[in-house]
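User: Predict the full complex structure for these chains.
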Amino acid sequence: GAGVSQSPRYKVAKRGQDVALRCDPISGHVSLFWYQQALGQGPEFLTYFQNEAQLDKSGLPSDRFFAERPEGSVSTLKIQRTQQEDSAVYLCASSLVGGHTEAFFGQGTRLTVV
Amino acid sequence: KQEVTQIPAALSVPEGENLVLNCSFTDSAIYNLQWFRQDPGKGLTSLLLIQSSQREQTSGRLNASLDKSSGRSTLYIAASQPGDSATYLCAVSHSDSWGKLQFGAGTQVVVTP
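Assistant: Here is the predicted structure of the two-chain assembly.
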């Protein structure tokens, strides 16, 4: 595709509900990252995939957060039993090879937990 | 632990003035540094990528310098325009971190006509 695509753009979840956020990276990009951005802050790293392998998940805030990229392309970030502090913008980024090339970001999913 | 700081947090300038945005980082062992632009409600747009071996990068009206030893980068935007109004973020990566980026909190820029 032309760019990184994320869906949905906006999600309102009731506290305790499970949510799934989708990321379609740029075709051919090996590396895929998820970031969490709170209002007025810079993005914070959550997790990293190289193809289908999740090589770093050190930024996931709790075991309620789970990410997968089963075929090395589309990725899903799942949050179970959402809480109010999960409200943020979730950004997906992809890059060509090895993770040290230029990163391209999607428009993000704004999650609001009520 | 790496800390990335951007000062000032907000900046307002009249159209035509040059913009100078600062980014500092505490650990100089970086692999590269990227400058991004973020418009309200949008994702991040990459502006410039500077490898650790480089001193500067230029693209059009944008010029970014990197001084690894002092832990600083500066983004210069010449002859600012109202369309330059946005939040500008810098981010660093480390060679042992798979390219994951550590961001500053950003500088919010307003260019007034």
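The radius of gyration of chain A is 13 Å.
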